[in-house]
Amino acid sequence: MLVIRLLRVGKKNQPFFKIVVTDKKNPPRGGRFLETLGSLNPLTKERGFKQERIKYWLSVGAKPSPRVYNLLVDEKIIEGKKINVFKKPKTKFIASEARPPAGGGKFVSGAN
């Protein structure tokens, strides 16, 4: 299945993304892609899209990722409502919620 998604190519603390068409099985970072369809620089808010190629790949059956879908709705390439995209919550380790060790915390010797 073909997917249109973001590929990060920027340096550390300088994100820059390419919008690419790739197979869903390829890894999101550094994987092979079929074609570059645009670019996105979140620091300077610059966006560049190849609208004709995006429409072609959508007509062939490529599915955009949720974030790319929202970008395409913003640029009026796709008509529709935006999709809610939530970041994954970071889990924090809290010492008070730690479970006691198995066996009640007592050391049992195997030798009698």
TrEMBL record:
It comes from the Bacteria. SUPFAM superfamilies: Ribosomal protein S16 (SSF54565). GO terms for biological process: translation. The keyword Transmembrane does not apply. One of its GO terms (molecular function) is structural constituent of ribosome. It holds the Pfam family Ribosomal_S16. InterPro entries: Ribosomal_bS16 (IPR000307), Ribosomal_bS16_dom_sf (IPR023803). The keyword Ribonucleoprotein applies. Keywords: Ribonucleoprotein, Ribosomal protein. GO terms for cellular component: cytoplasm; small ribosomal subunit. Belongs to the bacterial ribosomal protein bS16 family. PANTHER family: 30S RIBOSOMAL PROTEIN S16 (PTHR12919), SMALL RIBOSOMAL SUBUNIT PROTEIN BS16M (PTHR12919:SF20). This is Small ribosomal subunit protein bS16.
